[in-house]
């Protein structure tokens, strides 16, 4: 028996026979402006499921604790059930998006070191930026857990940058989310896909991610297919 637990903006979560395991179904929904703009894009669910499965398996192989168990079908995967931490953990390698806007840099300007940011996960509040004191004051996680989230995010960044550069892709920035497993470990959850990363071709600087949808630049699927094909060639 499998019943719907919740429906997010792009994925549906279902129970399984094991209370510590959930089934995640990727949909074709695309959203921008924290859900205010919505569209269905053929193949997006399949592509994100396949890309995120490949990336999570690669990170697990390289020592990162993740929720990923296995890819079940074209659109579904089995994940460890986590109690999610309501923070978005963002890493930036090159200036883009809100960082570029906030500091008035050039697009893809080099940063002297990677930047890590936290945002509160809240559609109603538009995912506001949070500093460490704000996280502690609202009792979201402890100081040690903030440090663990930060260090794990940097480690994931190093692994992903290495992987993407082999695929001739620059990892501009990305958002990840973490949760606690049944044993209280902090574990990488959610997904890593072109919906949650900025990825550009190293030579042409062409966007291969959701920015194409956010900025109404045309068909996003071609970029997602490129990302999947290049990752498959590197990982398998
Ligand atoms: P920015 O703060 O520049 O808008 O986003 C930084 C990075 O985090 C980008 O790679 C973007 O895709 C990702 N990101 C930020 N907020 C969200 C979100 O609410 N959902 C998803 N899927 N990605 C996000």
Automatic annotation (TrEMBL):
Pfam families found in the cross-reference section: SAICAR_synt (PF01259)
Q: What reaction(s) does this enzyme catalyze?
A: 5-amino-1-(5-phospho-D-ribosyl)imidazole-4-carboxylate + L-aspartate + ATP = (2S)-2-[5-amino-1-(5-phospho-beta-D-ribosyl)imidazole-4-carboxamido]succinate + ADP + phosphate + 2 H(+)
Q: Would the keyword Acetylation turn up in this protein's UniProt record?
A: no
Keywords, A to Z, come to:
ATP-binding, Ligase, Nucleotide-binding, Purine biosynthesis
| CDD domains, alphabetized | SAICAR_synt_PurC
Q: Answer whether the UniProt record assigns the keyword DNA damage to this protein.
A: no
Q: Where is the SAICAR synthetase/ADE2 N-terminal domain?
A: 5-230
Q: Please give one Gene Ontology molecular function term for this protein.
A: phosphoribosylaminoimidazolesuccinocarboxamide synthase activity
Q: Name one GO biological process term.
A: cobalamin biosynthetic process
Report the pathway entry.
Purine metabolism; IMP biosynthesis via de novo pathway; 5-amino-1-(5-phospho-D-ribosyl)imidazole-4-carboxamide from 5-amino-1-(5-phospho-D-ribosyl)imidazole-4-carboxylate: step 1/2
> Which enzyme class?
ligase
Which Enzyme Commission number(s) are on file for it? 6.3.2.6
What HAMAP family does this protein map onto?
SAICAR_synth
Family per UniProt? Belongs to the SAICAR synthetase family.
NCBIfam families, alphabetized: purC
Name of the molecule in the record: Phosphoribosylaminoimidazole-succinocarboxamide synthase
- Native source organism of the sequence: Holzapfeliella floricola DSM 23037 = JCM 16512
């Amino acid at each position: 028996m499998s019943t719907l637990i919740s429906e997010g903006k792009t994925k549906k979560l279902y129970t399984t026979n094991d209370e510590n395991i959930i089934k995640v179904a990727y949909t074709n929904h695309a959203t921008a402006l924290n859900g205010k703009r919505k569209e269905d894009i053929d193949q997006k669910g399949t592509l994100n499921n396949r890309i995120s499965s490949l990336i999570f398996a690669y990170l697990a192989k390289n020592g990162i604790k993740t929720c990923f168990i296995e890819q079940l079908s074209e659109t579904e995967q089995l994940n460890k059930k986590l109690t999610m931490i309501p923070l978005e953990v963002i890493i930036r390698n090159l200036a883009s998006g809100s960082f570029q806007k906030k500091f008035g840099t050039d697009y893809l300007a080099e940063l002297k070191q990677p930047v890590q940011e936290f945002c509160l996960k809240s559609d109603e509040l538009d995912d506001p930026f949070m500093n460490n004191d704000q996280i502690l004051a609202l009792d979201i996680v402890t100081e040690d857990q903030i440090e663990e989230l930060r260090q794990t995010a940097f480690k994931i960044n190093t692994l992903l940058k290495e992987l993407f550069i082999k695929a001739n892709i620059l990892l501009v920035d990305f958002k990840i989310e973490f949760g606690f497993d049944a044993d209280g470990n902090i574990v990488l959850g959610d997904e890593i896909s072109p919906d949650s990363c900025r990825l550009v071709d190293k030579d042409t600087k062409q966007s291969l991610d959701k920015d194409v949808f956010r900025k109404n630049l045309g068909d996003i699927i071609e970029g997602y297919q490129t990302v999947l094909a290049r990752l498959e060639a590197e990982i398998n």
